[in-house]
Amino acid sequence: MARVKLEHVTKRYEDVTAVDDMNLDIRDGEFVCLVGPSGCGKSTTMETIAGLTLPTEGEVYIGDREVTRLPPKDRGIAMVFQNIALFPHMNVKDNISFGLRLRKYDSEEIDRRVQRASDIVQLEGMLERMPDEMSGGQRQRVAIARAIVRNPDVFLMDEPLANLDAKLRVHMRTELQRLHKELETTIIYVTHDQAEAMTMSDRIAVIDSGELQQIDPPLVCYNEPANLFVAGFIGSPSMNFTPGRVTDGGFTSESYDIEFDPASLGLSPGDSVTLGVRPEDVYPAEQRASVSDPSMTIEARTDVIEPMGDEIFVYVVTTDEMEMDFEAAEAGQLLMSVSPDSTIDVDQDIEVVLDRSKVHLFDDETGQAICHGLSPNAQTGTTTETETEAGDDD
Amino acid sequence: MRNPIALLRRRWSDSDDVRTDGGTVDSGQSFWNRDSVRSAPFWLPPFLLVGLFVYGAILWNIVLSLTDFQGLGSPDYSNLDFENYLAALADPIDGLLSVLPFVNGGAVEARSPSWAQLSVEPIWNSAWNTVVLMVGFTVVCLALGLALAILVDHKIRYENTFRTIYLLPMSLSFVVTAKFWLYMYNVETGLINVVITSLGFGAVEIVQNPDLKLPAVAFALVWQFSGYAMIVYLAGLRAIPTSHFEAARIDGASTLRMYRRVVLPQLRTATVSALVVLTVFALKAFDFLFSMYSGYQPGPSADILATRMVREAYANQNWAYGSTIAVVLFVMALFIVTPYIYSQYQRGEL
Amino acid sequence: MSKDNKGKRFSRRTVLMGAGAAGAAGLAGCIGGDDSNDGGNNSDGDGTGNQSGDGSGGSSGDMQPIQLLHAWSSGDGNAAIGALIEGFQEAHPDVEFGEEPVNGAARGNLDQVISNRLQSNDPPSTFQTWPGKTLQKFGDAYESIEEDVWTDDLTNNYLEGPKTQAQLDGTFVTVPLNIHRINNLFYNVSVVEEAGVDPTSLSSPADVVSACQQISDNTDAVPFAQQTSGTWSTTQLWETVLLAQAGIDGYESFINGEGDKAQVQSALENVVELSEFYPGDSSSIDFTEANTMVMEGDAAFIHQGDWAAGAYRGKDGFNYGEQWNQVTYPGTSGSYLLNMDSFPYFANNPSPEATKTFLSYCGTAEAQVLFNAEKGSIPPRGDADVSQLDTFQQDQYDDFNNADNQPPSIQHGLAVVPAIKTNIDAAFSGFLENYDAATTAQELVDSFK
């Protein structure tokens, strides 16, 4: 068990920088997910921790030791791979005990440890099987047992569930969480699936273009995304973004306006900003009463409806359809999540409101978040005015 | 043209219809609908051709070896016996003693089979040379091929160029490579001796040196075919996921151990396929010897079963005895290849 | 070079001309050969032409094209066979010719082709083969041509040696076409002069060794050019030395299987001594390279058949009697060690009439001069007009006619049957590895068992 620290780690290949000045501090016993789209550098980051790749610059610490130049075997780590990577010519027991045998443990100790590891991942009675005689889930358990058996300080898992089918993946997720609770070992887990990251980890490290965007607990990443990228990446379906400008009285865009006091946020009229709001923070106007800080009403039209069972996703279009090109349609579209008993139909005029306390503003230039939730004091007085304005516009 | 099989099938099921109830019709149709039967036009002709011209020819050769066939005319199959084998494998103990290195024993008497005007020597010498060549050549070739493959697999620069360079010798004919190596082995001007003398040693006679002849032939063949072994191994290596290497390294395997315990066992299939082909090439060393020594008399220390066989068959027209040697050669090849094929079969990889 | 090209071109054109002529003539008739030996072989039932050996004119009948298989696919051999066929076409324009050189130019390949064709009962008309004991190889497949081809003209004019070699168990089955002599010692005049050696004064194989020593002492040249990658050069050197040391009687005893081991070993020991004077890389060179050493002045002597002189003819400024010369191998004067090519007659012949016509033509002095002028060898007939041959050939021809005996070569297949020759080759392949005269002598004597 150990803390893992990356300081200014940079990995450059001939013409690409895979990891750019990465600083990470992972606490002892923590379960941290590295997430990001394909090619963002999360796997390279993990490889530098594992020692499979040496960083071009920076240092890696595991526990109290600097391990930047140490070979993988001396770092006290164990790794589980996406393609499971069991050796096909060895049976389960030999696969699990491979590392122990290389380290010349005596056979009793090996047996004891293999037994314990296979108990933890529930592999009873399968020790003599060959990998190709097992299902995908069983093989992944063997791979995990192989990692457990060496009592590593840190587990590194590189998309270990990516090759499993959806149902098994969900099952294995809980297994991993149980395992983490039982072993209390630091786990660093790479995935491109934000749902996995949300459900399992203590903290999520969101990586894009080789740079760390944010590292925070899942709900913090969700509720207070540090920038546009995190806001868009975390959450499914993803956040609505509307590009616009700051005015004297707040935010304006082609589709709708939101009232707030720019000065209180240090903004001045004319600044380009993007407004972000999650689908569950968009409401039909008739539910205004239950919204904690409703915005003015926005006139819109329903476009596509996706019933999900426990909720319904409604795409509403806020700009005048006739004049829209594709890009404008994207910007003028809002996704709204409503309760399943709503009776909303397609191509219907509808009025929606946003929960101002859940609205995010992002600086267009830097992408950084300006605020999460608009201050409540500016709200009530302006609501009717905006309504009228909106009505006039129509 | 109507498809005769379809026609036949229709007729078959028609007759069933008349004779029995639907169930039997089903069984009749199911026979013709079986994949193996329906695909027969594709597999049957090659199956028959291979059966006749490969296995049939092997069988015929075995039968021929039991006759007294020599000279012109046609063989007499009425009187089959193992006389040729007794002559070819006479005095096994003395025969082995006479060919094993560091043992100077065992003179072997030539035998006179009933058909022969002249006595015939047993085949111990050429059989031993064949084994030495086959084993030496294949083992070295596989080892070198593996080493090259591992190097090339390490993503060195100009990888494709290297691959082509290593593979190129294989595309040359034995006649060319034999003349080439005759030149390379030249005592005065050949590259090998130029290197030896530049290191301060005396020039070494190679081509007609009884101690170096066979190694020299094996060396030339290794030069020619290690590129092939490399390609086969490279394909095998490429099929092993990178994560296996990484897993082994994290588990604490040194590079040597990683290759020995993780990579090599996964190259079994590649080894078997390379081995089979290389064994065949070793048998084909005949062409090389023929070109190098201007005929099928490479001398006792490089005489292999193939040269002996051609001498008996085509120079002496002792067809039956030549067939006997061919059968011995065939059995030897089986001995080398079978254990590997069998282990592959047991692992379900064939 | 130009000579070769001319020969090739000519032969191809003549074949076409011949074919065209035959086509135009249609069923003009067959020439040459008596039909008495045809038996049922010619299924077409010919018109039974009847005439003397080399006669002209004949009655009508199907004349199948001659299938001649040979390995003279390049060089002087190709020019020679081209000249022969051209001459034949002129004399017999109505006989069609299907010349088929077997690729690889190796006699071994040719023999395999013949062997396979005989196995499938499909013999060609005739093919290029050594006569003598080599005839035993396809013995049963040959048919006598004593009456149709070996007329008095041939029996009276062939010398005794070649005549013996044309017979299989006492019956004439083949027509020898040329003779290469084996017991020659060629030398580069300036090299031996520089060393102070007079080759004509040498009278025994031992003298050759001494002369080599002298050359080695006095010049930078290799004394004795020889190749040892293949066995054949060494075998023919040994047989020449054996003939020199043991005489014709000792030589004949050996080829009859009654060789004296001491004589055999003594000859081998002489070869071992000579091997000290070979080029250092003799095992990596071939005959052509060895011969070139003599031509370039890098070597003094070479022992070879007189085809070696063929290369000298092609080199400008390298003339017989001036830059190079030849002596009968010391100790073998009076003997003309024979190496011959011949065309035999197969039973079940695909073209009986035409084949016999052709073989009869090959038996004429005129045909043999045409052939040998290109080949560099000499006619086996004693009455040939050799004025068209070059000076060296004329000298060899004189030697031939004045020879006391014409023993057959072992290496070149005349003296022993193929199986024994295989054993002898095997013995020499071992000899080249270790130069162990005693062991090899025993193996050579045992070759006949």
TrEMBL record, chain A:
SMART domains hit by this protein: AAA
Superkingdom of the source species: Archaea
Record keywords: ATP-binding, Cell membrane, Membrane, Nucleotide-binding, Translocase, Transport
Domain ABC transporter: 4-234
Pfam family, one: OB_MalK
Membrane topology: Peripheral membrane protein
EC number: 7.5.2.13
Main location: membrane
Region annotation Disordered: where it falls in the sequence: 372-394
Keyword Nucleus annotated: no
Cross-referenced InterPro entries: AAA+_ATPase (IPR003593), ABC_transporter-like_ATP-bd (IPR003439), ABC_transporter-like_CS (IPR017871), ABC_transpr_MalK-like (IPR015855), ABC_transpr_MalK/UgpC-like (IPR047641), Mo/tungstate-bd_C_term_dom (IPR008995), NA-bd_OB-fold (IPR012340), OB_MalK-like (IPR040582)
Catalyzed chemical reaction(s): L-arabinose(out) + ATP + H2O = L-arabinose(in) + ADP + phosphate + H(+); D-xylose(out) + ATP + H2O = D-xylose(in) + ADP + phosphate + H(+)
ATP-binding in keyword set: yes
Record text on subunit structure and interactions: The complex is composed of two ATP-binding proteins (XacJ and XacK), two transmembrane proteins (XacH and XacI) and a solute-binding protein (XacG).
PANTHER family, per database record: MALTODEXTRIN IMPORT ATP-BINDING PROTEIN MSMX, TREHALOSE IMPORT ATP-BINDING PROTEIN SUGC
Designated name of the protein: ABC-type D-xylose/L-arabinose transporter
Species this chain originates from: Halomarina rubra
TrEMBL record, chain B:
One Pfam family cited in the UniProt record for this chain: BPD_transp_1
Annotated keywords: Cell membrane, Membrane, Transmembrane, Transmembrane helix, Transport
Domain ABC transmembrane type-1, first and last residues per copy: 127-342
InterPro entries, per database record: ABC_transporter_permease, MetI-like, MetI-like_sf
Primary location class: membrane
Superkingdom assignment: Archaea
Membrane topology: Multi-pass membrane protein
Annotated PROSITE patterns: ABC_TM1 (PS50928)
Spans through the membrane: 42-63, 131-152, 164-184, 216-235, 267-286, 319-342
Signal peptide: none
GO cellular component, one term: plasma membrane
Subcellular location: Cell membrane
Keyword hit for Cell membrane: yes
Family: Belongs to the binding-protein-dependent transport system permease family.
Name of the protein this chain belongs to: Carbohydrate ABC transporter permease
Organism this protein belongs to: Halomarina rubra
Automatic annotation (TrEMBL), chain C:
Region (Disordered): 27-64
Gly residues bias: start-end ranges: 46-60
SUPFAM superfamilies: Periplasmic binding protein-like II (SSF53850)
Pfam families tied to this protein: SBP_bac_8 (PF13416)
Coiled coil: none
InterPro entries: SBP (IPR006059), TAT_signal (IPR006311)
Top-rank taxon: Archaea
Designated name of the protein: ABC transporter substrate-binding protein
